[in-house]
Amino acid sequence: MSFFGIKNYIYLILIMVIIMNIDVVEALRIIPRSVVSLIVLFFITKLMGKKQVSELSLFDYVIGISIGNYTAEMVMNFDYQYINGVIAILTFGIISYLVSIVTMKSIHLRRFLIGVPTVIIEDGKINLQALKKTKLDINDLLEQCRGAGYFDISEISYAILEANGKMSILPKSDYQVPNLKDLKIKKGKAYLSVNVIIDEKLMEDNLKNSNKNLDWLNKELEKQGHTNYENILLATINNGTLSVFEKDINNTKKVLE
């Protein structure tokens, strides 16, 4: 958010305070509580791992709802001690962390707490019993298939509902995309791109880890017409090749509206 955006945001709050006759003192008390809650939530999420963000199992979903509920109480409810909410969030976070460790060691607990995949379509045939078990109807199945890019269910050989609710699909052999091996095409090794300039700022550690130095980078930039890092949104190195992406905010064409 830019400076002018923050300024407008403050003006909006002041207008709301005046029009709605809000208790200013109580409203201002919410700000530090919100900041502290955000900090606590951030570190708890770091403790719980990226899985909590990307792939929610049923247990993770319950934990997320519980933490969200207590966070709202911490910010808005002034009738009980703030530390109680912090302790509750910490408790949920620690439980989630311990469960993630236990489920890695015990397959039985993993099946109970996290769940197991369910085969919905097997060898091209819909498993009605599996649909009932997972509480899905045929419309839900079709929606999941469309979301995975399959608008014709007859193209699917296997469809598996994962524990996180996502549908994994194996198409029939006639509808599988051929790979380079199938086409007998030899291709070189794939390399990971390294970000060396982000938003006009040099990433020195990334440059060093890519086995390149500053002199090499500057020479490559000069070859592409850049004497400095100004107006460079992103620069990456992939297998020794430098790619530069400039900031261009005046050439946007609206084609999706």
Task: List the keywords.
single chain; 257 residues; alpha+beta; CRO Repressor; 3 domains; 4-stranded antiparallel sheet; 10 helices; 50% helix; flat
Task: Give a count of the beta strands, DSSP E runs of length 2 or more.
Answer: 8
Oligomerization state: single chain
Tell me the strand percentage band. Answer: 5-15%
Mean pLDDT score? 79
* Tally of alpha and pi helices: 10
Query: What is the first-to-last residue Cα distance?
Result: 24 Å
State the shape: flat
Task: Provide an overview of this structure.
- This protein is an alpha+beta fold and 257 residues long.
- It folds into 3 domains: 3-110, no CATH class; 118-175, bsu07140 like domains (CRO Repressor); 194-246, 2-Layer Sandwich (CRO Repressor).
- The protein contains 10 helices and 8 strands.
- The protein has helices at 3-20, 24-48, 51-54, 58-76, 82-105, 107-113, 128-133, 138-147, 204-209, 214-223, and strands at residues 118-122, 125-126, 156-161, 167-171, 194-198, 201-202, 232-238, 241-246.
- Strands 2-1-3-4 form a 4-stranded antiparallel sheet. Strands 6-5-7-8 form a 4-stranded antiparallel sheet.
- Helix 2 packs parallel to helix 5 (82-105).
- The mean pLDDT is 79.
